[in-house]
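User: tokens in, sequence out, please.
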């Protein structure tokens, strides 16, 4: 049976928790309610005992940095190294950074500052799970940290000038993205608004919120994630004759 483990590494800010879903709920919506999922509170030390018991595992976003001195972060790194090759792994934002670090890369707080709003990434290589095809994707983002080096076996699948390592793949069963396909534009805007003038410069906040009104490609990246995690085969291409 297809089951997806959701490794919950963070929560929405307190002031948004009543109005918006938590992160596991967002990923359940992304996968579809028919897909069984099991939530693991990683910050409390809960992890899947047997990664192979799941078709795939998602590592969510978090306010933490992978370099923070928190007891659950080394345990997450160990679990990711153990799980690699036993199940399909997907990392989003913090999860992207955690996977890159666990597999031999490096993450740091970027001198470029906050990445917020709608960012567009160029697709650098097409993988089997990338259907429908797209030359680029525009997705909401919210991060200060960035992956700055990757392991020799990592493939860069998406990048931008601001985020050179925006999408990564290892082998056939581990992928990660810096962006947030699970964030609706309204939630991304509310997140920025709550940090305006304190953590995020007011002008940058204004520009980022304005960018979120443009069309995005969350549906495309969602299709890719579903194809990867749920082993959905690509559509059969025909010559148009119906054969």
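Assistant: Sequence out:
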């Amino acid at each position: 049976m297809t089951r997806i483990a959701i490794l919950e590494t963070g929560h929405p800010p307190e002031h948004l928790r009543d109005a918006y879903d938590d992160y596991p709920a967002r990923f359940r919506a992304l996968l579809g309610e028919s897909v069984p999922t099991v939530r693991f509170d990683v910050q409390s030390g809960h992890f899947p005992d047997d990664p192979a018991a799941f078709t795939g595992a998602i590592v969510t976003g978090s306010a933490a940095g992978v370099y923070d001195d928190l007891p659950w972060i080394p345990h997450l790194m160990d679990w990711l190294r153990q799980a690699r090759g036993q199940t399909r792994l997907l990392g989003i934002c913090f999860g992207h950074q955690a996977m890159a670090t666990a597999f031999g890369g490096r993450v740091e707080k970027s001198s470029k500052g906050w990445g917020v709003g709608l960012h567009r990434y160029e697709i650098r290589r097409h993988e089997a799970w990338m259907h429908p095809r797209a030359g680029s994707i525009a997705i909401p983002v919210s991060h200060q940290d960035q992956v700055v080096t990757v392991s020799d076996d990592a493939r860069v699948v998406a990048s931008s000038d601001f985020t050179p390592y925006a999408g990564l793949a290892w082998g056939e069963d581990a992928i990660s993205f810096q962006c947030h396909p699970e964030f609706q534009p309204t939630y991304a805007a509310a997140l920025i608004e709550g940090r305006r003038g304190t953590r995020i410069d007011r002008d940058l906040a204004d520009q980022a919120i304005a960018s979120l009104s443009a069309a995005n490609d969350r549906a495309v990246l969602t299709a890719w994630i579903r194809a990867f995690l749920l082993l959905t085969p690509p559509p059969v291409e025909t010559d148009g004759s119906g054969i």
